[in-house]
Amino acid sequence: MIMGRVGPAEFRHALRAEWIKLWSVRSTWWCLGTAAVLVPVFGVLAAASADPADAALPKAWEVADGGFDPLEPLRGMLLAQFAFGVLGVLVISAEFSSGQIRSSLVAVPRRRRLLAAKLAVLVPVAAVAAAVLAFGTFFLTQAVLPDALAIGPGDGGAWRALLGLVGYSVFIAVFGFAVGTVVRRTAASVTVFLAVTFVVMSALPAVFPASMRDGVGRYTFVGLADSLTALQPDPRPGVPVAALVLAGYAAAALAAGLLPAERRDV
Amino acid sequence: MIEITGLVKRYGRTTAVDGLTFAVRPGGVTGFLGPNGAGKSTTMRLALGLEHPQEGRVLIDGRPLRAHDRPLTRVGALLDAAAVHPGRSARNHLRSLAAANGIGDRRVDACLERVGLAGVAGRRIRTFSLGMRQRLGIAAALLGDPWVLMFDEPVNGLDPEGIQWVRTLMRDLAAEGRTVFVSSHLMAEMQNTADHLVVIGRGRLLADAPIRELVAAASVDVQVPDSDRGHAVAQLAAAGGTVAADRTGLVVRGLSADRVGEVLHGAGIAVVRLAERQASLEDAYLELTGGSVEHRAQEVGS
Questions:
Q1: Contact A24 B89 (CB under 8 A)
Q2: Which residue of B has its CA nearest to A265?
Q3: What InterPro entries does this protein's entry cite (chain B) (predicted)?
Q4: What's the whole-model pTM score?
């Protein structure tokens, strides 16, 4: 019996439920584990192959173009985005694909509460995982790089670029979640997520006149990620604007998933 | 108490639930019967707020489910064996649902114990048989110790022992004063379990009555000499019976076998054969749902 328990089910209860759900399926471990292996391994290999002669080049943050980029070994983190995105997709699509959603919605009939709880678990988990990965790989790769090439987190705004990697990872996870909320089924959601993130966003500039391609390219996911994570001091669109535009993309995608959620049949 | 009022659910041009109104009362087992595709599962999904009706509403203890705090403490539902993530262990599945309503792990373990899954609680649901999944679904329904329980085809996939167990469980829950609403397309199952029946077909209400009444409405077969047939029909109709003819004789409803004998005897008609047709729920059901094509008699008078 559960007598003696009073008070309504609150958001924190839904949060607790989603926390249990996230860590009790293997796919979470697969997604985070894939990124946790790929990023440092790629980083160490890239750092180990650096040419000590590059120490003669200017540092990337000192020039508008070219120069030696000590964060180059962290580029793997941008490729590992798919793992964060798929994690975001699966958090919701696995429920629809399996039928679990029906059990979940009997326990939490307020759908936006359910979805908000999922998001509120996903965001910090993605953020912590990305931070461990970005900063961990940073220190690892700088240790592997020849001393003359390695930098510390305070050099050339490296910490800002690392935070940018974390922020972009969280954005991709949220975007994947939003796609999963709209599309629902896992296979379709993952396909749509990958298509938008890696195909549509890469091909988008090509559909514009040549004179606009560069400008458009800066506002695609990849372009914005570059703004956030590069050491190069490119003024367009700049870190604050890039962060705001990404937040706008995330908000729009979430709105498409969350606003109709109460009306749609399950 | 579940109150369903004027419920309509259409999918495109198909009407799955067509103006259902009935109430499910506490303290008994109410069977929800109808052929496959009659709209039983849809009605249950509507009651749980998983789908939205075009018209009508469902109230659980006076409010829509979503208006209740800690809904699992109000209603427990066994939907279908697929309403689980197969990669999760049975225990973690229940823990997550319980946590959403502030219910602790001790209750989870008690429910696993009650449905006989304590020994496999750590196994992933993927490895479960259909019967084990049904038991898990029942454990989920019991988590919040709710006063309203809905079971959609609970005996699917269960072995005879499991069926007996579910039957006893439902009777026990009803005896505690709870509202137990259980769907089935199997009449025989209901005959042993339900106190009250709601029968639907093609989304419409066909019957909402105590099981006794539905069984009592069975018929009497009587055979009289052909020459007296018309006379017998008139006499029985005058006595208040509904009379139909089939190949071998007359089928009388609304009169007991004794009364049929009396009426015919009083009219001086020789009775060749008189038999109470087995008062089975199956017959009543087939009759209601229009499935009894083979035995359908031609109405000759009323």
A1: yes
A2: B51
A3: AAA+_ATPase (IPR003593), ABC_transporter-like_ATP-bd (IPR003439), ABC_transporter-like_CS (IPR017871), P-loop_NTPase (IPR027417)
A4: 0.85
Write down the domain spans for chain B: 2-209, 216-301
- Chain B environment of A98 (Cβ under 8 Å): 82, 84-86
Question: From start to end of chain B, where are the E strands?
Answer: 2-11, 14-24, 28-33, 55-60, 75-78, 148-152, 179-184, 196-201, 204-210, 220-223, 242-245, 250-253, 273-276, 298-301
In A, residues 56-95, which contact B (CB 8 Å cutoff)? 94-95
Cβ distance B83 to A20 less than 8 Å, yes or no, reads no
Q: Could you tell me if B130 lies within 8 Å of chain A, comparing CB atoms?
A: no
A226 to chain B, any CB pair closer than 8 A? The answer is no
Per domain, the residue ranges of chain A are 11-258
Tell me, what's the ipTM? 0.90
Touching check for A199 and chain B: CB below 8 Å?
no
Output the tens digit of pLDDT for each of chain A's 266 residues: 444 455 667 899 999 999 999 999 999 999 999 999 999 999 999 999 988 888 888 888 888 777 888 898 898 888 889 999 999 999 999 999 999 999 999 999 999 999 999 999 999 999 999 999 999 999 999 999 998 899 988 888 899 999 999 999 999 999 999 999 999 999 999 999 999 998 898 889 999 999 999 889 999 998 999 889 888 767 678 899 999 999 999 999 999 999 999 989 98
Q: Answer yes or no: are the C-beta atoms of A249 and A238 closer than 8 Å.
A: no
Task: Lay out the sheet containing B148-152: strands in order across.
Answer: B75-78, B148-152, B179-184, B28-33, B196-201, B204-210
Architecture of domain B2-209: 3-Layer(aba) Sandwich (3.40)
User: Could you tell me which CATH number the domain at B216-301 has?
Assistant: 3.30.70
**What are the chain B neighbours of A20 within 8 Å (beta carbons)?**
92, 95-96, 99
